[in-house]
Amino acid sequence: MNALPIARLFGFEIRVHVSWAIILAVIGVTAATQVAVIAPGIGTAGGWVIGAVVAAAFLLSALAHELGHALAARHVGLPGGPVIVYFFGGAATSRLDTARPRDEVLVAAAGPLVSLTAGAALLVVTLIGELAGSGPVNVVGRVALVIGVMNLLLGGVNLLPAFPLDGGRIVRGLAWARTGDPARAVRIAASSGRYLGILFATGGIVGILVVDSIDGLMLAVCGWFLVSSASMVERSAAVDAMLDGIHVADVMDHDVTGVPPGLTLDTFADQILDSSAQSSVPVVRGADLLGMVGAKQVRRIKRDQWADTRAEDLMVTGDAMPSVGPETSLRDALDRFHGSGLDGLPVLEAGALTGIVTRRAVAKAIAEAGGRDRLRTGGAPVS
Predict the structure, then answer these.
(1) Which residue, among 174, 168, 319, 337, has the nearest Cα to 243 in the 3D structure?
(2) What share of the chain is helix, strand, coil (3-state, %, to 5)?
């Protein structure tokens, strides 16, 4: 997932994506450099302090944005998961977690509303600082201006009607309310993002050719990103439709042999890496499930180290090893695969291991569902 847990607020675990290390450094250096130009009397140390404050404030602004989504989701009755802070908001998916269109709009709009409100409040602080003239209050006002503009950008950009931005989810909710068809609403939202991306890309190319502007390149890249995201959402929606009604019990491996934690890798690694065999095995002690070992974990170990590496040395355990039940939808299982990086998930029933579901089994189910869809419609495969 590439997100590090840093705190717990309002009952939510807060995780920050690792990309923020670079983002904070860029913002801090840029802010410190600008301070040295605008207010040389502050000094080098003072400039770096202000740069650090601006960078930290932007991270807190992004956190407030995501907490707005999380609190709104809790308000409409959705389960509270971890809050992951991405740069410029999180990533919307084609799946609808809300039960009503208005809830979808409310949850999507909550984050931008928080950002825009914070931005407006900080601009008021800026105005007070300007009225105060020179001095510390004026410096605070200048810093508030930078952070306020960042919040306004954060809120405004996320309101663009395109996935993976919040505006795309708002379009989806409104289209859902208008048509009554969630699947069609996803397609409408994806189309909105594609058209906006094409508009951005066209404007960017014109900017590059006509005025030779680097801003044109940035706009074209944003357009390409939006078009790519729209295509990704449509593919994900197609997978949702194909897997509708299929459960883990329909594709799981029931006849699963676990390995004890002390067993060395050389005795079972080839079984995992064999494309025709089980691609993941549970590590068990008696009837207790301890962890999972899959092809991804095996490939990290050099072959000449297999004889000295035990199953318990590389198994995935705890929160990094999500489990599913026989009645879990295959689409939910696919989401858990994406979050875990595992090749197989344990299937538990009443707390007891009853089998595993593998990525290979999910891929086979998608292929078979796609084949049935092509036979039914006589059309081309969904891409």
Answers:
(1) 337
(2) 65, 15, 25
Return the residue matching tokens 């357009």: 223
Please give the span between the terminal C-alpha atoms of the chain, in angstroms, as a whole number.
25
Phi/psi-derived region of residue 10, left when phi > 0, alpha when psi is between -120 and 50, beta in every other case: left
Cα-Cα-Cα-Cα torsion 270, 271, 276, 277, nearest 10 degrees, comes to -170
DSSP structural state of residue 42: G
Backbone region of residue 180 per phi and psi (left: phi > 0; alpha: psi in -120 to 50; beta: other values): left
Picking from 2-6, 164-168, 292-296, which range would have the lowest pLDDT averaged per residue? 2-6
The DSSP result for 58-107, as a single string, is HHHHHHHHHHHHHHHHHHTT-----EEE-TTS----S----SSHHHHHHH
SS3 274: coil
Cβ–Cβ < 8 Å for 221, 208: no
Task: For residue 156, give the nearest of 198, 194, 195, 119 by alpha carbon.
Answer: 119
**Is CATH 3.10.580.10 the classification given to domain 248-366?**
yes
Give the 3-state secondary structure of residue 300.
coil
Please state, in angstroms and rounded to a whole number, the distance separating the CA atoms of residues 295 and 20. Answer: 30
Query: pLDDT tens across 33-74, in order?
Result: 877 777 777 778 888 888 898 889 989 999 999 999 999 999
